[in-house]
Amino acid sequence: MWFCRALRRVAPNGSRTYATQIGDKKVAVLGAAGGIGQPLSLLLKSHPGASSFLSHLSLYDVVNTPGVAADLSHINTSVKCTHHTGSDALPAALDGADVVVIPAGVPRKPGMSRQDLFNTNASIVQQLTAGIASTCPQAQVLVISNPVNSTVPIAAETLKKAGVYDRRRLFGVTTLDLVRASCFVAEAAGKRPENVHVDVLGGHSGKTILPVLSRVPGVQLTKEQVEKLTNRIQFGGDEVVKAKDGLGSATLSMAYAGARFTLNLLRALKGESGITEAAFVESDIFKKDGVDYFSTQITLGRQGVESVGEVGPLDEYEQGLLKDALEDLKINIKAGVDFAK
Ligand SMILES: NC(=O)C1=CN([C@@H]2O[C@H](COP(=O)(O)OP(=O)(O)OC[C@H]3O[C@@H](n4cnc5c(N)ncnc54)[C@H](O)[C@@H]3O)[C@@H](O)[C@H]2O)C=CC1
Ligand SMILES: O=C([O-])CC(=O)C(=O)O
């Protein structure tokens, strides 16, 4: 499993240890004091193998970072934690960062769509990406802030304006959709979630989320199950928003998903090969349809995106879902591009 795979070694006596290599990467978390930022930072600081590739966790927010950093710094791993509060402190937070993770912005309340967050979060992502462009233009940028289908194009346009855009270094984090899909499909099929992999393509909201349930290894589902599960995966975020009843959206599962993506990227940047994750990245697959960003499985490497995977075979039902996904994606992406211009 990803959490234990990183740099683990089995000693001759059978005990499990972690490589003693010292990490040299700096990760900046922007929005570090928030519902996602805090547990995400905890998972990065406390991961048993993290100090083998991570040396510095830089915690940035507009409020409360001293407390988060003081608290995390009492965890006995070698990852250094620093805190930076307010926009004047952004350059110091980003200085020398190899990876920047952005969970800054407002979450949904019941009755809202992710696109309803656009007015607030678009300018937050734009401002933070402009900071990245001027301070750490070579960094890998992981956008969590919603609506991801629009905030990723905003980040791309902002980096392009500054002349530092490289499609290999910008990701919209869609990992939570795959994590959820594993849970829901495993539950329906009577399997262990750890052993179920579901490809989820497209974007990160409603109908733009396209779970490929026709090719889950070792799982056969009825038509009725497929339709029910597809809807549950597409609207899984709403379940959490409803359950939290006004107190926000998914934070803990998102922190888990964000940490998984970040740690896998760090392993790839260090030179480990064959690491794949899904992410919403610039992709040529549907450019002919006016959709410049799309999530498929990608291979990660020393420069970030090494190669973008195919969509693969889809059955008739999934082809219908794809058509709907592309329609919505085109609108969401255009909204982001127009805003940034
Ligand atoms: N990509 C995905 O799968 C998911 C994305 N999200 C999104 O992540 C975002 C954050 O969610 P939560 O952590 O629950 O929200 P939150 O409100 O708990 O935390 C957000 C943090 O961002 C900070 N912030 C606001 N403006 C900022 C700025 N200009 N610079 C730096 N920090 C700033 C706030 O002070 C706060 O600490 C939301 O937009 C949410 O919709 C949530 C779950 C899953
Ligand atoms: O639903 C939301 O607003 C948060 C989110 O993106 C998710 O949980 O997938």
**First-residue to last-residue Cα separation:** 42 Å
The second-level CATH architecture of the largest domain is 3-Layer(aba) Sandwich
Q: Which homologous superfamily in CATH is the superfamily of the largest domain? A: NAD(P)-binding Rossmann-like Domain
Order of helices and strands: HEEEHEHEHEHEHEHEEHHHEEEH
What proportion of the residues is helical, as a percent range?
Answer: 40-55%
Under CATH, the topology of the largest domain is which?
Answer: Rossmann fold
Shape: globular
Q: What's the CATH class label of the largest domain?
A: Alpha Beta
- Count of helical segments? 11
Mean pLDDT: 94
- Report the strand count: 13
Major sheet size, sense and barrel closure: 6 strands, parallel
Notes on the protein architecture:
The chain is α/β, with parallel strands linked by helices and 341 residues long. The chain has helices at 2-5, 37-46, 65-72, 90-94, 118-135, 148-161, 175-189, 223-234, 236-244, 252-269, 316-340, and strands at 8-10, 16-18, 25-30, 54-61, 80-85, 99-102, 140-143, 170-172, 200-202, 209-211, 275-282, 293-301, 304-308. The strands form four sheets. It has a six-stranded parallel sheet with strand order 5-4-3-6-7-8, sandwiched between helices. Strands 11-12-13 form a three-stranded antiparallel sheet. Strand 6, helix 5 and strand 7 form a beta-alpha-beta unit. Helix 6 (148-161) crosses helix 11 (316-340). The longest helix is centred in the C-terminal third of the chain and has 25 residues, at 316-340. Bound molecules: 1,4-dihydronicotinamide adenine dinucleotide (NAI) and oxaloacetate ion.
